[in-house]
Model the fold of this input.
Amino acid sequence: MKKETRVNHPPRVDLAPENHPVVAPIYQTVKFEFESLEQTLEYLHGERRGFFYTRASNPTTRQLEQTLAELQGREDCLATGSGVAAIAHLLLALTQQGDHIVCFVETYNPTRYLIRRLLGRFGVTQTMLSIEDLSGVERALASQRTRIVLFESPTNPVTKVADIAALTRVARAHGALTVLDNTFAGLHQHGEYDIDVFVHSLTKYASGAGDVMGGAVIASGDIIRSLRADFGVLGGVLDPHAAFLIQRGLKTYFVRYRTQCATSQRIAELLAGHAAVERVHYPGLASHPQHALARAQMQDFGTIVAFDLRGGAEAAARFVDALELFALTPSLGSTESLVVAPQMMSGGDLTAEQARLSAVTPGTVRLSIGLEDPDDLAEDVAKALAKA
Done:
């Protein structure tokens, strides 16, 4: 074999059957092959296990998918290139012209865009309510055949807590699928509820380092099988190297999440006792309107602390500019602490009434608590409040 050929066909290194890597390798390849046309056709006809093309599946990504499904308490998972890709692929795969979706004003802005603008162009209608309006959900489902009820809990950014048992019960009674964006709560929470499909942005807690993007759709084996072909054709798959990084990040997931939750509780209590703060939105506080519900539904209250400054937008601007340890940037769930100002949380697609229901005010600030020393974070927040 000449050298020009060898560099394209390097020697294979196979492990002995009893020899296993402690960390699974990255299958950074687009293509896989079988040893014969017969075996290839058996695979293509569903008669042989294996991998063929990474857009359809890849061993590295598959390991991550199986890990995520087990953490969320479901049978299977499909990983995508971002959290928004997971939501977009799911909605496109599950809906058709004439379908109806019930969604909520307390929903991630890109999700609202996908439902109202993108699906709206294809004849999918929607009813948008407040997550607290259970009677409105009942009326909407009773008045129109609904395909999906899509919600978040806790919600972004003011951490309203959905009554998951009530929502799933009424959705099931009317034949609607429930889709929960469970990113804020994390992969270990809410699995015991009768949710049909969980969606996660793996960019957040799963990765933890803020250096890789990904998304996941987690559900029963039957639902995932029904989605697989559409997801493959839509093509927003997760790259194997990104999958490897997220799988690595999951090793510290529980340590990170629970440590960040403990610090979040401390910061929320600091904010609640400060004269410059009108209201703190954190489910772990007894003052939170759904604190009892959160205690019943959640093992951990999360790492997002939102609050309303009495001085409105000007006070919020002074506060975020005074912070030294919080990066002024979107996203959440990473090892570094982050802050989002009210001017960055515009709900321009909402009516005045919908904006009121969302509970985001001109003075609302959202903190994502990281892994810095709690004393340092508390000092930083206290100094910024003094300037606010």
In short: The first strand starts at residue 76 and ends at 80.
